[in-house]
Structure formats: C-alpha cells, structure tokens
Amino acid sequence: MNKGNIIFLSITVIIVFSILFVLLKLPLGNDQDYFKNINCKHNSNEEAESEKKSIFKYLDSDSTINRVLFLNEVFLCHPVGYQQDFDSLSRFFGDEKMAEDSLTEILTNNLFEKNQKDFSGFNPNQLMKYIVFAERMSTQNTARKYKYFFQGVHSYWFNKVSNKLNALVHENSDYRFNPMYRVLVSRCAQNNYHISLEFTALEKVTSYFIEGKYSYVWGRIWLRTSVFQKTIMIIGVLFSFISYILTLNYILRFIKVKIKKS
Amino acid sequence: MKFIYILSTALIFSFGLGDVHKPTEGGYNSDLVSFGKKTYAGTSFYVVKFKRKGERIKVKYFAKKLNGKSIQERYDAWSKNQKVIMYSSGAYMSESFDASTAGIVGLTLDNGIIINRNVVFNRLSALVVTYPNGTIEIKNINDGRLTFDGGGSPITYDFSKFNDVSRFIDWASESKLTVFQTHLLAHNKKMMVHSNGSYSQASRRFLVSGQDSRGSEFYFIVHRPDAITLYDGAKSVFDYLNNNRYTVNSMINLDTGAQDVFQFFSVSGNVSGVLQGGTPISNARNLMAFYYE
Questions:
Q1: How far is CA A209 from its chain centroid?
Q2: Which is higher by pLDDT, A181 or A230?
Q3: Model confidence over B128-182: pLDDT tens digits?
Q4: Alpha helices in B108-215 (DSSP H)
Q5: Burial tier of A143 (Cβ tally within 10 Å: 0-12, 13-18, 19+)
Q6: Are B25 and B82 in contact, with CB atoms under 8 Å apart?
Q7: Which residues in chain B are contacts of A159 at CB distance < 8 A?
Q8: What is the spatial order of strands in the sheet that B184-187 belongs to?
C-alpha cells in the first residue's frame, strides 16, 4: 500500500469517527423520564389554599400594594385569584388601565428583580416553575378587558425563559444534549416560543452534506480561505483522488490476475 | 476506468445544477428600478435602487413553510400573476430540534399566523413589518413606543410593556401582517453595529430604506458577494450612501448563510446572471420579494 492510500484511508477513518462522535452525543433516552423529576405542578392542597389567596389582603390603607408580602406568595396564588384581585384593584384605583399596569408590573419586573438568582446559571427546576406560572396565566378564560394583563404576564415569563435558554446555548452549545434543557425548549415550543440553537461548525457541515447543500459548503470554503489555503486544498483533493483511482486500479488488476490464474 | 471518470465528472457538474432560477412575467416600470455595480473605497458591490414614488414598488414576505407548502411552492403560487423584480432570503434561520420550527429567530408572524412569540430585544433590534398592501416598515424594537402607520391609520404600542406587546401581536394577527426580526445595522442616520462585533466573514446583503437630498424615498438592496465582516460590510454601504447624498433611515441584514437565495429579474422577466445568490430558491426557509403593481 503506497503513502497516498494510507492518507486516503486516514482521512476516511477521521470522517467516519467524526460522524460517529456527533451521533453518539445525541441523547437516546426518553425526555419524559427526566421530566418526572421536575415538580412543576401545585398539589391539591396548594390549589385549595391558592383559591383563598387574594391580592386584596396585600393592599395597604394608603392604596398601595404590599409587594414584598405578595411576591413571597405569588406562586401560591391561583390566577383565578388574580382575576378577583383585578376587580378589587380596579375599584381601589378607579382606573382599569392603572390597575392592569400596576399588577402587571408586580408580576413581571418586580418578581424578576426579587428572584433574579433563578436566572443565573442553569436552574431547570426554577425555569420550569416560571413556565408553569406563565402557562396558568394563558389558560384563564378571562373577559376581554383582562385579556392583555394575563397575556402580558404570560408573554413576559416565556420571553424571560426562552431568552435565557437562548443565551445558555449560545454560551455553551452542549446544553442541546442536556435532557432537562431539551424539555424546557420543547415546553417553550408548545407555547409558540422557539429557541434558536447554536450548532458547531462540524455539525453544520455534516448537516449541509446530509441535506445535499454541496454548493453552499464549497462556496463558504472558497470565500473564507486564502490563495495559499486553496492551493493546499486543491493539491490535497487531487492527491486523494489520484490515490482513490490508484487503489481501484490496483484492486481491478488484482481481480483480473486472480481470474486469469483460475 | 472510463466509467469512473464519467461518473466523477457528472457528480462535479451536478453541484451547479441546483441554481436554476425560473424567469418571471416581467413588465415592471424600469424608471422606478435601477441597478449596477458600484465601487467605493476600494470595494465593489451591486446596488439595486427602488424609487418609492407613487408606492408602486411593493414587498411580499414569506416567513415560513405553511400548510405543507414550501417557501418555493408558496412563492411560485403567488408570483404567477405578479411583476416580480427580485427576491432574496430575509430573516436568519436557526437550527432546531424540530424541523418544522427550524429557521425561526425572533418574533415572527406570517400573513397573520403567529409562528414565534419570542421577542429578541438586544441582539435583533430590527422589527420588520410588511402589510397586505405591500408596504414595509422597519422599526427599532428598543425604542419602546413604536407607531405603525403602513396600514392607513397610525397605531402605537409600547414594546417595553408585555401587555402592549400582546396587543401588538393580536393587532398584527387580525390585520394579517407579516412580521420578523433581524439585525438593525443603521437607524435614523446612525450606525447601530460596532467594529468590535462578530469577526465572521461571509458575503452580505442589506436592505436599506433611505431618502435623497430632495426628500424622495428609496429602497436599496446592496449585494456584496465577497467575504466581509458584518460591520465592515454595513459601514462601507452606509458611507457609500452618505457620500452620494442619501440619508439612511434604516438598514437591515438579509441572511446570506445556508439560504443565500437572491435573484434579480430584468424588465423582460429574464434572470440576471450577476445579481443572484449562491443557493437555489428551493433552499429558502423564508423569502422577501419586491414586485411592481
């Protein structure tokens, strides 16, 4: 076997192992198995308790909301409670828009400021807590005048979570293979919030080859390489091609000799 | 041995066969559209200029494959009776676990259908809205209060409040608008990208909305086939237009990645061999078409 054949074989082995490496990194387990570990639902006692919670009790005598108390118990309050609170607030403020803005501000920016640590690093259980909170907001069969309060809070938290997931995968693309991360992504997607994933250069090239975008791969290589790199690349391709032809030639001759001998 | 040579030659040539673009009906007013190769500060790029006088130049955007129809199928069906001037890939495409949602980055609606509710504030600050009447508006989403008047009566939404963002999405859906987000490269006569940004080099394509010294409004599509960073590409186009006494109202980036789809048509409807992208329309995950009506 000549040197060209050895190089050709080496390149083939590298490509095969690279593809295997990418494929083996994909998780094979069922995402739902990991999902079981995430306690994202209120139990029945909490549900019962939440019905009793009303923001009205957090209203101070000077018409302000006791935000600290309210935010401490916000995840225990059921959105039905918010709707009742909203009516109370409207009466209290005498202005629906003001009530909507006040309650929205508490359940979005104020809550985020209080719980900012939940969004540092990757806390899947905490992120799931906000997803469940946001989902409960969107499932309310509300009268039209409350619609944008619920939709606004829903939209705020889904944007917070999906933008966090976007940021995480841009920092480290390996998050794509984390089952908890994948559950969160699919949960966001179910609600029409889609995460843009970051693929590595090797994965992109493999994907483009699978999709048959050869001209694109060639175009990118041609645009991004210097004349020297192009020359080396062409010599390499020619060398591999010649080695390939020589190998085939050698096999054909070997077969012919065998046939003649027999 | 001959068979191997024939097979390899056929394979090499087949790489280029995908770039087949169909001619279109043609017949647009050539007084409103001009194009040419321009050289500025040692770099060359192609510029297509659309005069907005009389609002005869219109824009149609296809955000996503819908109802089982690919972007190409949707474009082919729509363009049958249209005087198409050019088309280009638009918003960025992303990878996804789910092929049906791949290609969607940022808030996206297609003809009123909500595709993605995820609003990206810092990275993709251009909010592009196309109306059923063919008008296009480009807004800086970080400006907060945005007024949309392409549909007739102006309407304002405060994008710093999510209850108002939800109102906007409902309004866009009811009005059958098409909405997407991309990089805002320049806005209100100022560059919005900085030289310390991405160093990735690629061919570039920009959509610019601007006006000349007499106040006449134009759209420009600038196509740079050579590899360049986003900042350098945008800066050279910004400077070129300023140097030619055009004011840049807004400049956005059009994707030239794996869906580098671009085709310009002559007045007679023939494809331009120069003003075209590197990949066929079948690769498009979204598409922006300029047409004459």
A1: 24
A2: A181
A3: 999 999 999 999 999 999 999 877 789 999 999 998 999 999 999 999 999 999 9
A4: 162-174
A5: exposed
A6: yes
A7: 117-119, 162
A8: B33-40, B43-51, B217-228, B202-212, B246-254, B184-187, B190-191
Ramachandran angles phi, psi of A40, nearest 5°: -115, 0
Indicate yes or no: CB of A158 within 8 angstroms of CB of B118.
yes
Scanning every residue of chain B, which has its alpha carbon at the shortest distance from the alpha carbon of A247? B1
Taking 50 as the threshold, does the pLDDT of residue A141 lie above it? yes
Q: Could you tell me the sign of the dihedral formed by the alpha carbons of A186, A189, A194, A199, in that order?
A: positive
Could you list the beta-strand ranges (E) of chain A: none
Residue with tokens 């050895």: A6
| Most A CBs within 10 Å, among B2, B93, B101, B118, to test the A interface | B118
The pLDDT of residue B127 is 96
Q: Say how far apart CA B176 and CA B113 lie, in whole Å.
A: 7
B165 and A152 within 8 Å at the Cβ level: the answer is yes
The region, left, alpha or beta by phi > 0 then psi within -120 to 50, assigned to residue B55 is: left
Q: What angle do CA B96, B100, B101 make, to 5 degrees?
A: 50
Q: Three-state DSSP class for A261?
A: helix
Q: Is the model more confident about B260 or about A63? A: B260
- The answer to whether the CB atoms of B161 and A166 lie below 8 A apart is no
DSSP string, B67-125: TTB-HHHHHHHHHTT-EEEEEE--S---B-SSGGGTT--SSEEETTEEEE-----SS--
> Per-residue pLDDT for B94 more than 70?
no
| pLDDT score, position A64 | 67
- pTM for the structure as a whole: 0.77
Q: Do B101 and A158 touch (CB under 8 A)?
A: no
Answer yes or no: do B164 and A197 touch at CB < 8 A.
Answer: no
- Residue in A with minimal Cα distance to B161: A152
Residues of B in contact with A250 (CB under 8 A): none
Strand bridging mode B190-191 / B184-187 = antiparallel
| pLDDT for B187 beyond 90 | yes
